[in-house]
Write a structure and sequence with these properties.
Shape: globular
Mean pLDDT: 85
Structural class: mainly alpha
Number of helices: 11
CATH topology: Rhopdopsin 7-helix transmembrane proteins
Strand content: under 5%
Number of domains: 1
CATH architecture: Up-down Bundle
Helix content: over 70%
Length: about 300
């Protein structure tokens, strides 16, 4: 009978970035510059991969998809967060909140799965170089990428439906700068321990599975590198993996720390800090990580900007 007193929430109030009013303009300018760099850097990478025939290989095909995902992923949360830093109202509608939740997890899980596909690509390139063009042909790459997007779509749909069925009747303050599972469950009228476990289990199917696939690929790569007698050849082979490993630790490590941890007041505060890293800074760092030591991408970008300046 308690349910008769429930009042359905029609909109949520986002907490935003908790900071001193004096610091909010500074944070706004900093995050805006990072967001613009994210868009320019990742879209430039996508354009370079498309325009340069030398980059029409599996590794760069996956890199182009990763850059495109970073553009969308960052755009799901950062513009709303920036608006909250300069405006007093931080409201978001019920539909808008769950749309944001859906696309955040859709794009985030797809990126995690894509990173596992990229680790498989590195495994084949290093451990089975003679069969690389057979195992990683255009059709195989397209199928792997399509599978990543499809699984991400289904995973996010399951998470969003699970959370949207909750009755929200408490305060509508979401203790985050975007709509996410843990802070939304805190607003439910029902006991959410089961739903938290289900949400963590569904995430584990994607996030932890992706991490285990990546770990397995690099275990095989490690054993293969140990069998190579030449130190120079080992260093050359491993150098093709450093950018991918860096992104994996930055992205998947932070994501698993955020979504698999318990829901407490302290954990929600840590989640906000982790989310800033994942949604603001990691998408901006990816173009730097993949281009600073990659001569082919840097050359393609120079040619791209040269053609753009000439026209």
């Amino acid at each position: 009978m308690e349910g008769l007193n429930w009042t359905r929430v029609s909109q949520f109030h986002l907490l935003g970035i908790a900071a001193h009013p004096f610091l909010q303009p500074v944070i706004f300018v900093l995050f805006l510059l990072v967001y613009v760099f994210t868009l320019v850097g990742n879209l430039s990478t996508v354009s370079a991969v498309i325009s340069d025939e030398k980059l029409h290989t599996p590794m760069y095909f996956f890199l182009g998809n990763l850059s495109l995902l970073d553009v969308f992923f960052s755009s799901v949360t950062v513009p709303k967060m920036l608006a909250g830093l300069v405006g007093e109202e931080k409201l978001i509608s019920f539909v808008g909140c769950f749309t944001q939740l859906y696309f955040f997890h859709f794009l985030g899980s797809t990126e995690a799965l894509l990173l596992s596909s990229m680790s498989y690509d590195r495994y084949v390139a290093i451990c089975k170089p003679l069969r690389y063009h057979v195992l990683m042909g255009k059709l195989a790459c397209a199928q792997l990428t399509l599978t990543c997007w499809l699984v991400g779509f289904l995973y996010s749909l399951a998470e969003t439906v699970l959370i949207s069925l909750q009755p929200f009747c408490k305060k509508n303050m979401v203790t985050h700068f975007y709509c996410d599972i843990k802070p939304l469950l805190k607003l439910s009228c029902k006991d959410t321990h089961l739903y938290e476990r289900l949400a963590a289990f569904i995430f584990a199917l994607v996030g932890v599975s992706s991490f285990l696939l990546i770990l397995t690929s690099y275990i095989f790569i490690g054993f293969h590198l140990l069998s190579i007698k030449s130190r120079q050849e080992r260093r050359k082979a491993f150098s093709t993996c450093t950018a991918h490993l860096t992104v994996v630790f930055l992205y998947l490590g932070t994501a698993m720390f955020t979504f698999l941890g318990p829901t407490t007041e302290n954990s929600l505060e840590m989640d906000r800090l982790s989310a800033i890293m994942v949604t603001v800074f990691t998408p901006a760092l990816n173009p730097l990580i993949y281009t600073l030591r990659n001569k082919d991408v840097k050359k393609a970008l120079r040619n791209l900007y040269f053609r753009a300046s000439v026209t």
